[in-house]
């Protein structure tokens, strides 16, 4: 009994230490965001008073537009990814036609190609469409980049649904689109939500693609915009507003995950995603 208690104690202490290491940088970012330069240099690691909330107003004025750009680009890209990948996944899982396996294996093979290798061809392709430095060009690029993995996951998920449901629907006279809309989508809400969150996180954190495809600072997403923001405040050595900007930039994803964590975990444990 005593041995078990000691083992549990050390396990809990280790978990507490790991949690501290993981959470302290975020805590440090928040407390620094309320400091003036004098408070920053006088008390580097601790909380100082008074708290300077005006740092957030200054930061929001500088990066608010970047956040709106990221939200617009991310939501539009995710809608395209989910809509097209769900249809493709249903096709690979439930329809029968010549060349289906070859097409599916070609999609899966794309997962083995690092994204950086496609950056220059993608740039040339977007340029040939005349869509450089535009929201549409970046949305198309993100939507194309998220297809392969999402199609793979949807195909696995749709293939695991009971065949009897589809046979009963077809006997009742349902066409394929009606089966997809009324049977497949309602039963696949957890995995659809999971893939939507997964792709939104990837798009929100992407840096190289918007850096290459965009040149107008007014259209930058938050990842590229933060570099502009950081250079502005580092040159003035204003650490409070700079860390306030970092905090604001991290809040949308934090809020999204807090409100969708149950759906995300349900999708991961539904058997469709095996990592």
TrEMBL record:
What are the residue boundaries of the ABC transmembrane type-1 domain, all occurrences included? 67-260
Q: Which GO terms describe its cellular component?
A: plasma membrane
Spell out where the chain crosses the membrane: 12-31, 66-90, 102-126, 138-158, 179-204, 243-265
User: Quick one: a GO biological-process term for this protein?
Assistant: transmembrane transport
Protein name per Swiss-Prot or TrEMBL: ABC transmembrane type-1 domain-containing protein
User: Membrane topology per the record?
Assistant: Multi-pass membrane protein
For the keyword Transmembrane helix, the answer is yes
Location of this chain's protein in the cell: Cell membrane
The opening ranks of the lineage are:
Bacteria, Bacillati, Bacillota, Bacilli, Bacillales
Q: Which UniProt keywords apply?
A: Cell membrane, Membrane, Transmembrane, Transmembrane helix, Transport
């Amino acid at each position: 009994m005593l041995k078990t208690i000691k083992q549990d104690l050390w396990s809990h202490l280790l978990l507490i230490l790991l949690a501290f290491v993981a959470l302290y940088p975020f805590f440090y970012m928040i407390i620094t965001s309320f400091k003036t330069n004098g408070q920053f240099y006088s008390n580097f690691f601790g909380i100082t008073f008074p708290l300077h909330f005006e740092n957030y107003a200054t930061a929001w004025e500088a990066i608010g537009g970047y956040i709106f750009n990221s939200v617009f680009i991310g939501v539009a890209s995710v809608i395209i990814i989910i809509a097209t990948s769900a249809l493709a996944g249903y096709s690979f899982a439930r329809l029968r036609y010549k060349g289906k396996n070859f097409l599916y294996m070609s999609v899966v093979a794309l997962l083995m190609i690092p994204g950086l290798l496609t950056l220059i061809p993608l740039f040339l392709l977007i340029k040939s469409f005349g869509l450089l430095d535009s929201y549409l060009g970046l949305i198309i690029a993100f939507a194309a980049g998220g297809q392969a993995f999402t199609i793979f996951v949807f195909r696995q998920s749709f293939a695991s649904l009971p065949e009897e449901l589809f046979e009963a629907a077809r006997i009742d006279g349902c066409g394929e689109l009606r089966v997809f809309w009324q049977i497949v989508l309602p039963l696949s809400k957890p995995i659809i939500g999971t893939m939507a969150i997964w792709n939104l996180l990837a798009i929100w954190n992407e840096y190289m693609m918007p850096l290459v495809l965009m040149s107008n600072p007014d259209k930058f997403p938050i990842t590229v915009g933060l570099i502009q923001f950081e250079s502005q405040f580092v040159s003035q050595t204003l650490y409070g507003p700079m860390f306030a900007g970092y905090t604001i930039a991290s809040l949308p994803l934090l809020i999204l995950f807090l409100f969708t964590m149950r759906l995300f975990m349900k999708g991961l444990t539904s058997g469709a995603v095996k990592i």
